[in-house]
Amino acid sequence: MLNVSMQALRVFEAAARHSSFKLAAQELNITPTAVSHHIKNLEMRLGIDLFIRKTREITPTKNGFLLAQATHTGFGTIERAVHQLVEQGKVIQVHTTSSFAAQMLIPALRGFNKAYPNLEVSVATGEHLVHDSQAIAIRFGDTSQIKPSQLLCLENFNAYGNHTCLAGLSAQTKTTMFIPKWKNTQLPAAPWQAWLAHNGLDASLFEVVYFDQELYCIQEAIAGSGLVFASSSLVKSLTEKNVLTNGSHLSVDTQLGYYVPLNEAQYTRQQLIFINWLRAQLFDT
Prior knowledge:
LysR-type_TF_proteobact-type; sequence-specific DNA binding; DNA-binding transcription factor activity; Arc Repressor Mutant, subunit A
């Protein structure tokens, strides 16, 4: 391939489009002499004349017209692609579970929008893994094999409810406990038995009801139907507003947590801004 500079082609395209070295110079913020120099060098490298030069006018030759069409199309395609990439970079696509989106992510996004008003976050939810190379996938699972740079947070679990339901439990009244049972059977179960042992409680005190999403369990606790055995990050906003509380019960730590599956180098600058912001929110739970 001939050693032809992109700058020379850019100058040629502008000159051919304007039919003027002077107007091309104004567009590119260089001198007409510099335009003429670039064109002459380009003609020498190609071994052809690109323009018919007249006193106040230039006209592309047949070869010049052919190159003008190609450069105009090529630079137009590049400009459109760059514009599209810039616009895409302003929208951060996030895929996560319905429970995490509803209970943690979406309520917290107001703070992100305030801190980064030029970035937009689009959230898609679902319980099945979606492979999208342009999106951030936030996954929940066993983090024991996850790299520290991919980890968003480790979860601890506790029982949460309103004061009436918690008072009933303290009085040894049989209490309904809503517990998540993950659709993904490969995940470790919620640490219910470990929590009972940690708090010195007997399982006979509870009538256990399982849902396949924490979101449903939390909604039942908000409605006063019983307690929810949930991860701390998903009830953070509710405990801050005193809608739910854990009373005096002790939480139990786990290796379950939220993480992103890719290494930092595989994310864009905008995506890393979002990931680091989200990690800070979760570590503040």
